[in-house]
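stuck on this fold:
=====
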Amino acid sequence: MNHEQEKYYVPEQSPWPIVGAFALFFIAVGCALTIIQLDSPNNSGAILLLVGIATLIYMIFGWFRNVIQESQAGLYSEQMDRSFKQGMGWFIFSEIMFFGAFFGALFYARMIAVPWLGGASNNVSTNEVLWPQFEAAWPLLTTPDGTVTQAMGWQGLPLINTIILLASSITLSLAHVALEKDQRAKVKAFLGLTVLLGIGFLTLQVEEYIHAYQELGLTLQSGVYGNTFFLLTGFHGVHVTLGAIILFVIWVRVLKGHFSAKNHFAFQAGAWYWHFVDVVWLCLFVFVYVL
């Protein structure tokens, strides 16, 4: 009995993974040097960081271009689609673990280290040696060297940004439903609005950082509270930036007539990533800003 065999496409060797590895290396080293050189006239860290970001953007667009060309040429099979879904699933899982580490650090600082320094669990003598007159409260607004800061409230810009991200999830879902119904005009409108909302979020986050540094005295030198605040919100901002780039590329593809009601995994993958970023922000808003 003859059965039609499913074709399997094996992509050619690609330079993009190694380009992406160099980009992430430059970004990591650049971030570290930038933090170290905050009070120094030397800006080599910032330059390296910009080189890393530019290389990463170049890699994303170059890799996307190759994948789009292969897809449009009809080279992909159902097996490739399953591989893409598995790859995206594992990528999002790795991102969950990434943020889980930072939320874990926040939990440790708030629930273990701070009470311990305050004399909990019969560590009164240790408390007197390490930090006399320490008060176990969160957020820590005074560092051991006497630096005083203010906490970032949940109202104002953080609340507005939460509403913006929630609205962007709704508009993205509406775009997905419209694509499944082959209503391309609605797809273009709702997806374009989602990208604009993402840009609006990033713009307000920059304003929030300016407010934190100039008016609240909340900086990376503000002890464990400042460190955890900027690490969590900063890395989330990086992910929003990446998500906005992905959705923008998808929007451009929609304008060019790509995707169909049945075949649009690239759209789905971008939507999965964006919804993941939204969920992370909700957790961040609750545990960093509100509680």
About this structure: Residues 13-75 form a domain with the Helix Hairpins fold (CATH 1.10.287). Helices lie at 16-36, 44-72, 78-117, 124-130, 157-180, 184-216, 223-255, 265-290.
